[in-house]
Amino acid sequence: MPKVSDKWPRPRPSQSSLQRRALHHPGRIWVLLILGSLTLNLVMIALLASLYEGGGTPGCKAERSILVAEKKKSVVAAPQQQSTAEELVSAEEISVSSTSGKRPASKDAIINLDHGDPTMFESFWKEMGEPGDITIPGWQAMSYFSDVTNLCWFLEPEFADEVRRLHKLVGNAVADNHFIIVGTGSTQLFQAALYALSPPDAPEPMSVVSAVPYYSSYPAVTDYLQSGLYRWAGDASMFDGDAYIELVCSPNNPDGSIREAILKSRYGKTIHDLAYYWPQYTPITDAADHDIMLFTVSKSTGHAGTRLGWALVKDKDVAKRMIKFIELNTIGVSKDSQLRAAKILKAVSDGYELPVSQTNHRLFDFGRQLLSIRWQKLQAAVKASDIFSLPDFPLALCKFTGENTGTYPAFAWLKCEKEEVEDCEGFFRKHNIITRSGRHFGVEPKYVRISMLDRDETFHLFIERVLMLHH
Amino acid sequence: MPKVSDKWPRPRPSQSSLQRRALHHPGRIWVLLILGSLTLNLVMIALLASLYEGGGTPGCKAERSILVAEKKKSVVAAPQQQSTAEELVSAEEISVSSTSGKRPASKDAIINLDHGDPTMFESFWKEMGEPGDITIPGWQAMSYFSDVTNLCWFLEPEFADEVRRLHKLVGNAVADNHFIIVGTGSTQLFQAALYALSPPDAPEPMSVVSAVPYYSSYPAVTDYLQSGLYRWAGDASMFDGDAYIELVCSPNNPDGSIREAILKSRYGKTIHDLAYYWPQYTPITDAADHDIMLFTVSKSTGHAGTRLGWALVKDKDVAKRMIKFIELNTIGVSKDSQLRAAKILKAVSDGYELPVSQTNHRLFDFGRQLLSIRWQKLQAAVKASDIFSLPDFPLALCKFTGENTGTYPAFAWLKCEKEEVEDCEGFFRKHNIITRSGRHFGVEPKYVRISMLDRDETFHLFIERVLMLHH
């Protein structure tokens, strides 16, 4: 890779925010310099002291009146569901088995496509080489703090810069009028958002809903601590009430559909989970501009092991409460992960923006091409089998590529059309293919979710096996 | 040898003596201020400007610290007291201010010793050089899974190996008959342990207790989600009941004392927080062998920004539930942090075990020497002041060093003996020193906790200032 990176006008975090501000306001500093006298100095010192003794504008005082749950609340009573919390949790558990994340050992081995483990992207990053590598010296990033001038004091400035740059490049979300909050994966940010949107002193926990089929982790992650702040309340389309948090996953996990909030109430809140709103999966039709939007490197670049997500949040008080959650939950977020993710996102943007960048450095092209081939193979195999069906997706103009493109979701949402097969997951398991049943997503077990993001050898073995499943 | 750089007393002679004289006699503060240069003036102005402007986060940084500092006074959380969780949580919040983690900008700047930010160790790792560095290729550690043959499927084997090796070297804990569980800091593992030890179907939340003075985060972290599984119940010595989880922090944060569980019931459980049970802080008298033991790189090696802790857990079912918590909370733990921590722990063990290892690669020697000097300085300053007192610690045989050694806690637990000073934190704040009040730890505000782990320049400024505080 030619050394052009130095010429590229990437905004770099300045060493000191004080310096930055001083440079942004030369006029003010000049006036202050003229007026700078001992008196002023003393006034400043006195003011500063008073700030530390209890000033502050009321707008920033996010009161957190958290009441101890005096009695165990019946957290489970989702209006539409009769199952107990324990059943819910055990049904929705992340199931890790000895085949998870592994290459199949032989032709007949178990193929595990239960998780969306994005190992398909490994080959891209091997090809990328050095620009994707990072070295962290032993003495670096030791402090708890990243940038105390930022509301999100544990956010590494380099990472924030690369997040804004990437959204600008891809055009999938408006980052500029939003606070960036970094999280230990979007899972932690999802919980931070629930915490932020639930009034601490409400008589009842806030209802958390999502339209079926919804991401299988939502119910378990909402209910595992039996929080008095919020509780899972099932399918959004069945919800009857004014106060709620609606989870809108778009493109949707598991079925890849583009979604909007279906509930409308002035008391309702929405969280937009946009983990899959990237050009390898779906046409980028507009820059999303919602109140809370969640993203993760797991699905954008394939770095699931880095456990790093980010939220774009419009409202300052909501942002503050989300930050408070992350302070209490994990006292911030791994700086090593943030530094690495900054490097990874930089390599992705450089791949498109550097004048001489190589085509094999273009992540979204790589992802889209590979997924479109995989989807063709799967559709052909499904057609040949005559016992399954898949959703259809229309073409749409992608503003990122400038072309009419198809939709290639990270998961196949497959339905068993065989009348005698009620349990599609069980059917696949008989053929040593592990999938995730529709019942985890709030629908019938005739559906299964299948990862499309595994390594080539696993995917090919899967297609071979589907081709053998004749009617 | 990384210089155990105790630069005190060697400030620039002219300035220092003038300053000291000036500050011994409050009237001369004015003289000092007159001598305050334009640079100082600018620093104050810039600092103030940053506090008020705040870029995207207007005005919030200062307020957050203030919020916490000036809140509720009565926080002592004996279960019998009717203090609400609101009081508890606001008082126990982690307070981040514009000075957190920063070097003081001038002699008179605010010194922030509120957090135990372990930046004192930076100079050791700078001296260590390459053996402490890590390079992570772009394609590595992309999967969610680390080792699915391990109960803790997200635990990197290299990290687990280095944890066992280090405990064997130091002799501070028995790791061999325990499961290792990695967490996003010991804070996450603490919550995982609460989750694991609380029956999901009990009629009442489990009571969580700890003897005063207890670590200030315990109440807030226990109660912020208003869990139906567990709730904070205050001082262990005031607890009356059979079912509880007792938190035993040893050496104790904030006061450095060696502790054992004080409650005894066959239905009670204990969590041992051994974050500070390392040879730089305290003599290693025995290999701890408790049911659940928590450790963190933040305090052992100084890598707080890495957000990595580990638990040693005897019971398999408890381990499984802790792992389940981490799955639901963050789907595992950053592999980048784990790989880096493995390298760091390896460098620490190599420093003692490699035949040709250099003495400047011996972390615990470095830490103990520096802390013992710092404690001498502090004890001298406290004695000179005649208005404070510190706990006394006996010498003990350290099995790691083979010598009788003293105790040099990571925090000074300081009491204001001045009768008219009820609020020791406020007293220090008037002298631009930020500490954490005893009330956050469940005791009277005559006590404050002060970090001993900051960078040299911060610590020296602190000692200078204490020396000026005469009776």
TrEMBL record, chains A, B:
Residues 1-20 are annotated as: Disordered. The keyword Transmembrane helix applies. GO terms for biological process: amino acid metabolic process. The chain crosses the membrane at residues 29-52. Its cofactor is pyridoxal 5'-phosphate. The keyword Membrane applies. Residues 111-466 form the Alliinase C-terminal domain. It comes from the Eukaryota. One of its GO terms (molecular function) is transaminase activity. It holds the Pfam family Alliinase_C. Keywords: Membrane, Pyridoxal phosphate, Transmembrane, Transmembrane helix. Belongs to the alliinase family. PANTHER family: BIFUNCTIONAL ASPARTATE AMINOTRANSFERASE AND GLUTAMATE/ASPARTATE-PREPHENATE AMINOTRANSFERASE-RELATED, TRYPTOPHAN AMINOTRANSFERASE-RELATED PROTEIN 2. This is Allinase.
